[in-house]
Structures are given as structure tokens and as C-alpha cells.
Task: structure prediction
Amino acid sequence: MQRDGFRPTIVLGGGLTGISAALHLRRPYLLLEREHRLGGLARTHERAGFYFDHTGHWLHLRTSAMRELAQRALGDGLVEVERRAAIYSHGVLTPYPFQANLHGLPPQVVYECLLGFVQARLQRTSENPPRNFEQYVLHHFGAGIARHFMLPYNAKLWGVPPAAITSAWCSRFVPIPTLEQVLAGAVGAGPAELGYNVRFLYPRQGGIESFTRGLVALLDPAHTRLGTAPEAIDPRAGVLTVAGERWPYHALITSLPLPSLLGLLVEAPTAVLEAGQRLRATPVRYLDVATRRPARADYHWVYVPESRFPFYRVGVFSNAMPSMAPPGCSSLYVELAGREGDAEQATREALQGLVAIGAIDALEDVAFAELREIAPAYVVFDEGYEVALATIQRYLVAHRIFSCGRYGAWIYNAMEDSLLAGQQAAAQTDELPDAWPCASLDPSSGPSPAGATNCG
Ligand SMILES: Cc1cc2nc3c(=O)[nH]c(=O)nc-3n(C[C@H](O)[C@H](O)[C@H](O)COP(=O)(O)OP(=O)(O)OC[C@H]3O[C@@H](n4cnc5c(N)ncnc54)[C@H](O)[C@@H]3O)c2cc1C
Result:
């Protein structure tokens, strides 16, 4: 690494955000990744011929730019798959989304959901906009759908009560059907396709990491340092400390979890550090499950809202792509509602639950099960979220630090969003003048934080 007079753009974190930034940068850059493999959450674990992503990682590409990039990365190696998703509730499977496919549930449940939906519609006014996610659910879906799916499912997923989060994250991810669609779905004439993920792309072989590897193959390896993490960042001087050496940078593009990034900053203002303390996230524990026989479930994934089951979603990788397991076997993921506690007990209860919902036939079918964790997994969109994030991003952008991607921008997103965030950050940093200005910047001035929060 040359130091005097040369300032590359440094890309911190080699998940999809960092890889995309590196692919799109026109200025010289260096990509630093703490692990010994690029990809972050978009990596795949293989054991005995079974492949597991970090739970379901299905690729939805809505922009032509990212579809072209995917084509360059993997070409025909990406297969389009039609979603088969269901909800397991009251002992029956109904198609996803719950709110538009009530048919098949017990009549009393269908009645409650329909009545609630109609009442919510009649009572809805713009004068009482929802202040939290629970209110948002009641406002748009009514009490029945709230009680039987939305509230219990989201409490398990987020690990916090729905009243403790806002609805800032959900407009793209939670489809709101029309009254006509809900009625049609209640009598079994429902719309088959609703939601953002009707079809998805997935690598023919090797799990989602094959896609990541295709992207990585487009990079020049000379600009990547694996097993490398900075010890400190001096934002005023624009210098990173790595293994005791000082590395000046033109700009930083980082997808490190925002609190970790703040922990590396030298002399950050108290207001910024205090804002960092207000950021919250929950982890997720999940199981990789390998079975010796085909899973009984015919779905790609199933949502499980009821609290009597210890998981909120179960997926079968090998139903989407048979190469994810040896012939006649299946590979599954099971996302657990519990965030802590004894691992063996959690595994045992989850496997029993899989039999109970009919995802697998018997415990004896399980070849192995491994408990894993993602931390952070879900950012908590609580009341202080927006102000805290804006305070932090304003300071960072003013110092040429572009914190983006799922945990860099501290958001809820999908893989394409991270790819787009990397592309956008590359364009933003390429445009910055060569001269290093930040030492003279007033931390409260500088570009609006909007650019950074849009970074994903
Ligand atoms: C449970 C779950 C399910 C998901 N399912 C889907 C799905 O089905 N479809 C979809 O499109 N998206 C899905 N996503 C979202 C998807 O995983 C993300 O959008 C995307 O992978 C995030 O990429 P990223 O680069 O922003 O972050 P990350 O993948 O987290 O990458 C950050 C990188 O920074 C590195 N790093 C961390 N600290 C340091 C350090 N100090 N120094 C150097 N490097 C460091 C990490 O090792 C990592 O490689 C899911 C996410 C979760 C949590």
C-alpha cells in the first residue's frame, strides 16, 4: 500500500455492497474484508453434499442494471424460479400472502379476518395515521388478519413487539391487497400472485454464493485484502489504521454494521456517539437441516405465525434447486423465534416442530442439524431511529464516509438493494475532488444525509 500522495478509495466490508462498490468504482480502490472469503451474508455453507445459505437468499432483481450485472456474473447459471410460499396456521397450509388467501382456514378465522378487513376499511381516515407497526397492521388489515398472522408473525421475526417498531421498513415487503382480492381469496378464487417476490433467480449449482463468486470473478484480485480489518479510522485526516500502519484514503465506502464503524472512529463528536448508542438490532438463530429423505413440504418456504411453534419460517433450499442436496435428500433452513437459550434444546424443539407441521416425516429423517446465528440480523425501527441515523450519516458524509448496505445504512433490505447501494456509493465517491478537505470541515455542515440513507 503506497502512502504518500496516493489516496485510493477504501471499501470496507466485502459483502454484496462492497463487491458492487468495487465493481463500479472508476478511481483506484482497495477492498478490505475481515473474513477469508468475500460475500458476507451472500455466502453458502456446504457439508456432505448439502448446501445452505444464511437462511433463504432468493434473488429478486427489479432493475435492468442489476439484471445485466447478474447476467455478466453468472449468465445461464442463474435460473428463474416461480415462488411456492405458504402459511402454516390452524393446522392447514394456505398460499402466501395470508391476507389474500384466507380460503381453507377454519370458517370462524375467515370470518374474523374478513370482518376486520371491512371494518378497518370503513373506519380508516387520514386523521389518525398509524404511529407504529401494530397500528399500521390494524389500520390496513383489520383485527382478524392482525391477530391470526401479521402481529404474531412479525413479533417472532423482529424479536420485538410490533408496537415497538414503526412501519418505515414495510411498504415494499408487506403487500396490501384490495377488498376484491381479499374476498376472492376467502372463497378460493384468490390472486395467485401478490407481493414483491413472485419469481426469483437462483444459481443452478452451489447456492447463492455461486452468484457472489461470479461477481467476484469480475474484480481484479490485486485490489482485495482478505482477513483484513481496520483498527481505527481518523475521519478528519482521512486515514485508516490497519495492522499499525496508516493508510490515507480518498473516501471510505463501508458496509460494516454502523455501531462497529462508530467504534472505530477517532474523536467522533459526542452527539454522533450518543446517536450510535440509540441504534438497536436483533440477532437471529437458525438451523441448517439435512434430511436423508425428501422433505414432505413441497414449498420453497413456509411462514409459521403461531407462537406454539418455535420458528417463524421454514424453507427448503432443495425444493427450489435440487442440486442443493444429494439425490433423494433435502436441505432446509429453520428461522427460530428464540434468540437465546440452550442450543441443544432449541434444536430438538425445532426438529419436533418440523414433524408437527408436516415439513418432514420423522426425526429419524434428519441426517444432521446445525444451529447458526446472524448478528445483527434485523435493525429495530424504533422511535428514535430516524433522528439518530440522520445525525450519524450527516457527520459521516461530511467526512467522506459513505456507510451503506444493509447494516451500513442500518436498514431492512434485499440483496439487490445492497448491490445498488454499492453502485451509488461508487458514483458518489468518484465525483469527489482529489484534494482532501475534511480536516477543515465543520461536522455539522456538509451534504445532506439523504444521499447516504438512500444508499440502500
Ligand atoms: C435472515 C436473512 C434473510 C435474508 N433473505 C434474503 C433474501 O431471500 N433475498 C434477498 O435479496 N436478501 C435477503 N437478505 C438480505 C441480504 O442478506 C442483504 O441485503 C445483503 O446480503 C447484505 O449485503 P451487505 O454487503 O450490505 O452486508 P453484509 O453481507 O453483512 O456484508 C458486510 C461485510 O462486512 C464484513 N465486515 C464486518 N466487519 C468488518 C470489519 N471490521 N472489517 C472488515 N470487514 C468487515 C463482513 O464480514 C461482511 O463480509 C436476507 C437477510 C437476512 C438477515
About this structure: The pocket of flavin-adenine dinucleotide is lined by residues 12-18, 32-35, 40-42, 55-60, 229, 255-256, 260, 284, 374, 377, 405-407, 413-415, 417-418 (CB under 6 Å).
